[in-house]
Amino acid sequence: MSSNPDAAVEVRDVTHTYGSGSAAVTALGPVDLRVPPGAFLVIVGASGCGKTTLLRLIAGFERPTAGTVTAAGRPPVPGRNAGLVFQQPRLLPWKTVGGNVGLALRYAGVSRPERSRRVAALLDRVGLPHVAHRRTWQLSGGQQQRVAIARALAVDNPLLLLDEPFAALDALTRERLQEDLRQVSAESSRTCVFVTHSVDEAVFLGSRVIVLTRRPGRVALDLDVDLPRTGVEPDELRGSPEYAALRATIGHAVRAAAA
Amino acid sequence: MTVVSAVQTVAADNGAAPPTRPPRAQRHAGWWRRVALRVVSLVALLALWQLLAVLTDNPTFIPSPGAVWDRLVQTSTTHDGVRGYSGHLLVEHLGVSLRRILIGSVVGVAAGLVLGLVMGTVAWVRVATEPVVTFVRALPPLAYFSLFIIWFGIDETPKLWLLSIAALPPVAVATASAVKAAPATLVEAARALGGGRWAVTRDVVLPHALPEIFTGIRLAVGIAYSSVVAAETINGVPGIGGMVRDAQRYSQTDVVVLGLFAIGLSGLLIDALLRTAEDRLVPWRGRS
Do residues A165 and A244 both lie within one domain? Predict the structure, then answer.
């Protein structure tokens, strides 16, 4: 069995079980999945369907109970090949905003002056100029999540993994961040894997959407989204009939899978 | 300063963290009221003390505030050819004791930090050392002082050993529990950014543990403080404990009381310094 180095992520016949014996719970699988480079894959499903487990397997935080997971042809190692954004910002409160964003650069051995230059550019890119010296708790929840995204983008990993990053934010902030993430991902050639329970978010962000069944999670629907990625206003996109059709299809699949 | 007072102030710190501060004028009023209250209580205590001294009319039993004040002046100057008390000024006695406390605390805190860090990260070390640390913590320092006298004689060495050993367990226990409780979410975040074991310890585990370590340090210094008088019961002059001990032997109650004040007030000062340092070094305390 050889893994395909052309795939950004390859999940082969993966099953994942937590616990052992009579307390064992199979959270996921079997799942087969191949994500080509540059794709924006969104995983949708109800709570407890194993979507976070799948993301953690791809990040390398968990090893599959059965089957193989590879990223660019190799078993994933945390911090090696993927930037990760969690549901909570998980910023280190003892570091300044800039210190948080520069952490990955520091671990990668980037020199201090180069680091502060790149931190400023990264914060600029997520729409937060001039906050590098601020304390993390002086920022709002949405701003903190932007910082978390900048932190995950700092090192040029081929993969960006996001686990319901906007779930804890208010609707307005969420939409703004979705638009910005769509922009950022369109500008870079990174492969994104995005986990959410929101059908709207899936249609808006994904170039491909998969729906997982409830536990143990399996792929119930695998759909390519053919909406334009650039050169279109977010509101125009959200109002288009194609968007509405996709939203209906995926929404139906999510409800069916959760039943 | 006592251990209890350190615990109480720490508890108060944790409890009071209002999200928004009241307006400046109100804060000012609160500050003045607190100062006024303290001055009033101090005056009341002094008055009570004076009253008791007059009623008992026995300076060996309860010396009056005035007598203690005279002692302060006398032990701080050369009087009738006698320098201070037992040939040393009060500040010299205090200075020697503070030096012992400082060295003992630094050694004990440093060793406690290292031990606690290892205990918190390596499971088998924790299993092996936890009972020993708890055992030592339960012992009154005076109990093992005799052993140090036998091993190291009666000079500085046994005193510094005593204070170091007394200061070690609270720091070790606080550090170990705080390190063990490092939040998995932040550890994971740092690992996801490419942080190795040492980087995660330096950037997540230790900073997260810092507030608790500080609590441990304040406890340790408090214990070193209360142990120094015990350590100076043998060959303790110069030293504030030695001074008190000698004064007790000659029934110079006013000197005993003066010594208590010197220890208590310097303890308050040191604790305030430690708290200021903590506020400076741990600005994220109470934030998430």
Answer: yes
pTM above 0.80, yes or no: no
Say if residue A200 is in the same domain as residue A124: no
Q: What are phi and psi of B111, to 5 degrees?
A: -65, -40
- The CATH number for B194's domain is 1.10.3720.10
CB distance A161 to A83 below 8 Å: yes
Please state the ipTM of this predicted complex.
0.87
For the record, the structure tokens of B170 come out as: 């609270």
Residue that finishes a domain, picked among A112, A133, A156: A156
Q: Which has the closest alpha carbon to A82: B202, B191, B184, B197?
A: B191
Interface check for A82 against chain B (CB to CB < 8 A): the answer is yes
Q: How far apart are CA A151 and CA A172, in angstroms?
A: 23
Residue with tokens 């994220």: B284
Range of the domain at B219: 3-7+62-281
Which of B185, B208, B282 faces A90 most closely, judged by CB atoms? B185
Phi and psi torsions of A190, nearest 5°: -65, 150
Q: Do B203 and A103 touch (CB under 8 A)?
A: yes
Examine residue A30 and say whether the peptide bond preceding it is cis (omega within 30 degrees of 0).
yes
The one-digit pLDDT tens for each residue of chain A (259 residues) are: 455 667 889 999 899 988 888 888 888 878 899 999 989 999 998 887 888 899 999 999 999 999 999 988 889 999 888 899 999 999 999 999 999 999 989 999 999 999 999 999 989 888 888 898 999 999 988 899 989 989 998 888 889 999 999 888 888 888 888 888 888 888 888 899 999 999 999 999 999 999 988 888 888 888 888 888 777 888 888 889 988 999 999 999 988 888 7
Please report how many Cα atoms fall inside a 13 Å half-sphere around the Cα of residue B212, on the Cβ side: 21
Contact B113, B173 (CB under 8 A): no
Residue B15 falls within a domain, yes or no? no
Instruction: Output the CA angle B255-B260-B262, nearest 5 degrees.
Output: 90
Interface-testing mutation among B20, B187, B191, B193, with chain A (most A C-beta atoms within 10 A): B193
- Count of CB atoms situated within 10 Å of the CB of A258: 17
Q: Which of A158, A148, A105 is nearest to A128 (CA)?
A: A148
Distance between CA atoms of B115 and B168, rounded to whole angstroms? 9
Q: Which domain holds residue A179?
A: 1-81+159-259
Token pair in block for residue A243: 């968007």
Look at A92 and B199 and tell me if their CB atoms are within 8 Å: no
**How many other CB atoms sit within 10 Å of the CB of residue A216?**
19
